[in-house]
Amino acid sequence: MALYAFGINHKTAPVAIREKAAFAENNVADALDNLRKSGSADEAAIISTCNRTELYYSTDKQNSRAIIEWFCQYHKLTESQLAPYIYLLPESEAVKHAFRVAAGLDSLILGEPQILGQMKDAFTCAHKAGATGKLLNRLFQNTFSVAKQVRTETAIGANAVSVAFAAVSLAKQIFSDLSQQTVMVIGAGEMMELAARHLREQQVKHIIVANRTLARAELLATQFGAEAITLTEMPARLKDADIVISSTASQLPILGKGAVENAIKARKHKPIFMVDIAVPRDVEPEVSELGDVYLYTVDDLAEVVEENMNSRQEAAKEAEAIIDIQVANFMDWVKSLDAVPTITRLRESIELLQNEELKKALARLERGENPREVLQQLTHILTKKFMHNPSTVLQQAGQEGNTELLDAARRLFDLTDN
């Protein structure tokens, strides 16, 4: 049974291709069923995110192209459309890829933790659908274990490497418990969505989303159980915010010194932490002159992000060394599976012989024969029959000069010379 990883990701394919090759979350179980019925895979799991679509699967077929044909047919794509962007990794390469993905080493943002949760969800879905077996179950269990080891033993996820993450991390340093703070995010674009996600991960209960259009603010607010307001309402609500993170496309500042000063007075000089990650800036520079306001700009955070990225690059080298060791361990286990049928057959053969001779011995005891003699003969017959085939084969090996088989027998039966 061979193991493979097949797919496309943000490194190999543009978003236009990734969109066409994605699986909708509610269709994954049906896709797995379709895949296995096609005969292209015996076990399978599908991971589909905005940055990657990957299939981890096992098959006893030699034709690895079957998966490509199925994938193209399922998504109504031609092979020529997909060929420049795909990768198909066999055996140890597939294992290493899975470990690297889970550890965040193959992510758009080095070391990001979100992909591990997505892989766990993908495995849970495949397992519930009955699409995984001994090989993939072990692969994903090891994958999650390796990811945990990498995060425990290296600093791969210790420092912020996105501006949004850096903003939230800085807020966490100032307010040890973010869950008790009210946060206003100004803007509803990708950067603010990312910031809101990080805030929710920090258990922030009250988030206010302010945006030029209320509909867009509500769309983002709905995702995170937040409150939506318009930019015209924002100055009056500023007094409610302990933390303000802003990133809009405005060409002029949307937060002036006067509005912030009024908010500080209304808060009775309770401090406000502000992060302006917009270019051009959303907050007038003069706001930094106000007491009880702590204002950081994108340039302040950029220095933190660059320093932290260098730190993660060093941690990535340590992570790669851990992964190489764990890939070797996993492949040793895979190789050991080849011996399982032989061991099973040997056990069955010995048990059959044992049961036959035990049945004869019990019959003799029921006839009243001497138990000591019955047991002695039972052990003698079992030993003789156990040794008959091995002895015959080893004698022939000696006659033929087959020293490899003789050495294997010594190792198998632990026959060391005294």
Account of the 3D structure:
The structure is a single chain. This protein has 418 residues and is an alpha/beta fold. The chain folds into three domains: 2-153, Glutamyl-tRNA reductase, N-terminal domain (Beta Polymerase, domain 2, 2-Layer Sandwich), CATH 3.30.460; 163-305, NAD(P)-binding Rossmann-like Domain (Rossmann fold, 3-Layer(aba) Sandwich), CATH 3.40.50; 370-412. The chain is built from 16 helices and ten strands. The chain has helices at residues 15-20, 28-37, 65-75, 79-82, 91-102, 114-128, 134-153, 163-174, 190-201, 214-224, 234-237, 257-266, 298-336, 340-366, 371-400, 403-412; strands spanning 2-9, 43-48, 52-59, 87-90, 182-186, 206-211, 227-230, 243-246, 272-276, 293-297. A six-stranded parallel sheet has the order 7-6-5-8-9-10. The protein has a four-stranded antiparallel sheet with strand order 2-3-1-4, with helices on both faces. α9 (190-201) links the parallel β5 and β6. α7 (134-153) packs across α13 and α8 packs parallel to α9 (190-201). The longest helix is centred in the C-terminal third of the chain and has 39 residues, at 298-336. It is elongated, with a radius of gyration of 32 Å. The relative contact order is 0.08.
